Automatic annotation (TrEMBL):
Source superkingdom: Bacteria
Residue ranges of every copy of the NodB homology domain listed in the record: 41-294
NCBIfam families associated with the record: pepcterm_polyde (TIGR03006)
Listed InterPro entries: DUF3473, Glyco_hydro/deAcase_b/a-brl, NODB_dom, PuuE_HpPgdA-like, XrtA_polysacc_deacetyl
Protein name: DUF3473 domain-containing protein
Matching Pfam families: DUF3473, Polysacc_deac_1
PANTHER family, alphabetized: POLYSACCHARIDE DEACETYLASE FAMILY PROTEIN (AFU_ORTHOLOGUE AFUA_6G05030) (PTHR47561)
Annotated CDD domains: CE4_PuuE_HpPgdA_like_2
Species lineage: Bacteria, Pseudomonadati, Pseudomonadota, Betaproteobacteria, Burkholderiales
């Protein structure tokens, strides 16, 4: 399938500070894809949920620094914590969909995916009281094998997706996808906004958050996002999870070494780094940056 050129953006005036997109994938520690072999979905309702307290900490950071963000929220979480969802909306943030139960798009057929994205959208809109325009697939699970998912999102009423990560990774990735916002099916269709990368020596390197942000020195992450702003003149797109600011979360037993490392590396430093990130850049919601650029 041919992928269309990046979406045109107004050129920022010389010296104008670029607003970057801050995003949070609202899920709890026991719902991450890497833990799926170790944690049965049937056990989710009985596990200690820590997402409310973590979201409050995040909202407080954003309030202190004047950050507005997009919260890609699981329907499973929203259904159980509607007051938390309304708190996000009341603080001026954008509510978007992360699907209902953190099922990868690549593990669903067209009918299952269609039901997931429509039901989660309706649920979030009912709870949050605002239109849900954006979607992010769990584990960035849209790629060459299921690009039909982008058509399904458009048909379901979404205006944009942030579900493709243009890197090579053992769990996800579409390294030949455009690095910046593009229309997969032309300008009248859905807008896809990939997670930020920098291109060095012909390879895309991750620069938009997640475990890489905790693993790499903060100064390097900051430099990469500044490079995107300065040289590409594009907004960076950053993402993280509520459980990443929670060093005291329960730790499941039996995890393999790679999953344990990825999930917990430098987790005790994340809240401080998020504070620093909020200070070092200008941030806004996905819808205001990409759907209605000024």
């Amino acid at each position: 399938m041919k992928l269309y050129a990046p979406a045109p953006r107004p050129a920022p005036a010389p010296g104008q500070r670029i607003h970057n997109a801050m995003t949070c994938d609202v899920e709890d520690y026991f719902q991450v894809s890497a833990f799926a072999p170790y944690i049965d979905r049937a056990s989710w309702p009985s596990r200690e949920c820590r997402v409310e307290a973590n979201i409050e900490r995040i909202l407080a950071i954003f309030e202190r620094h004047g950050v507005k963000a997009t919260f890609f929220t699981l329907g499973w979480i929203a259904e159980r914590y509607p007051a938390m969802v309304r708190r996000i909306v009341a603080a001026g943030h954008e509510l978007a969909s992360h699907g209902y139960g953190h099922l990868r798009a690549s593990d669903q057929d067209r009918a299952e995916f269609d039901n997931d994205i429509r039901s989660s959208k309706a649920l979030l809109e009912d709870i949050g009281g605002q239109a849900v325009l954006g979607y992010r697939a769990p584990s960035f699970s849209i790629g060459h094998a299921n690009l039909w998912a982008l058509e399904a999102l458009h048909e379901a009423g979404y205006r944009y997706s942030s579900s493709i990560y243009p890197i090579a990774h053992d769990h996800y990735g579409m390294p030949d996808a455009p690095r910046f916002a593009f229309y997969p099916h032309g300008p009248d269709g859905l807008l896809e906004v990939p997670i930020t990368t920098v291109n060095m020596l012909g390879r895309n390197l991750p620069a938009g958050g997640g475990g890489y942000f905790r693993l790499l020195p903060y100064a390097l992450s900051r430099w990469m996002m500044q490079k995107v702003n300065r040289e590409d003149r594009q907004p960076a797109l950053f993402y993280f999870h509520p459980w990443e600011v929670d060093p005291g979360q329960p730790r499941p037993e039996g995890l393999d070494a790679k999953s344990r490392f990825r999930h917990y590396v430098n987790i005790e430093r994340m809240e401080g780094r998020l504070e620093q990130l909020a200070r070092d850049f200008a941030w806004d919601r996905m819808d205001r940056i990409f759907l209605d650029p000024k």
